[in-house]
Please model this.
Amino acid sequence: MPDLSVLVTGASGFIGRHVTAYLLKKGFNVLTTDLKSADLNGDLGDKVFVLDVVAKLRFDAVVHLAALTDIKRSIQNPYQTYLVNDFGTLNILEAASKNGVERFIYASSANVYGLPIELPVRESTPFNPRTPYDYSKVIGEYLVRSYAATKKIKSTILRSWKIFGEYERLTAAIPNFIRCCLKGEPIPLYNGGADTTDPYYVENYTRAVELCLLKEEAVGEVFNVGTGVERSIKQVAEEIKRLTNSNSQLISLPPRSEAEKEPMRSYPDISKLKRLLGYEPIVSFEEGLRRTIIWVKSLIE
Model:
């Protein structure tokens, strides 16, 4: 059993709830923080809360998930995005530094690569951010690197592709597709569903987090997280249609924003994660969809 006390930020969010439950199941001691419904309720952008409250507690590791992730909102309000995603990261890094933590896991995003200049995307692929959210994750990564260099924090950066599962907001693509299929409503596809990604079930991400907390080989590294399989958004919608036996029609819509006008192909090379940490996806794409369908169905009923 791991004898690690782990602080999970953004613990009441979609991924945070899964990471917290998974780590508890694996025997970690978990301390949670978020705006509400956590052990410590507060804003990570509030320096007083983080440095006078959070930093004075004892924890051995941090899994930093807290962030504003809505792309459209980040375009409408970049200031708020940087305030939460970057000043919040800076504050929690300072708290981690004061605690002398053994590990700091930063949840970055495949969005730092933007429209990738090569496929599959490798950890060495240059950044090419498009939206304020993308840029906020680039900045966050450099903040983590700077604290690793100057304060000797043992950090790991995870760049994740499209995670889905229970507790994701129903307006997100996959839960929304499921809801539409269950209700027989049209399925909206921005850019006609031409964009591609590597959608994968959230438990695979929690496994990657666990490995980063336990393995010395993770220290100082950046890892792409996914399954390494490219799927178009249209293919995802069609698979959900099949699994729900739905007659819903696919409706082609224009791009969400000018920045996203050019359809984006993006999927990762995860060989580094496999080689250094022994990672393998533990839940298949179809099984993950089935679990998520059951959850959305329970909400609708």
Notes: The chain has ten helices and 13 strands.
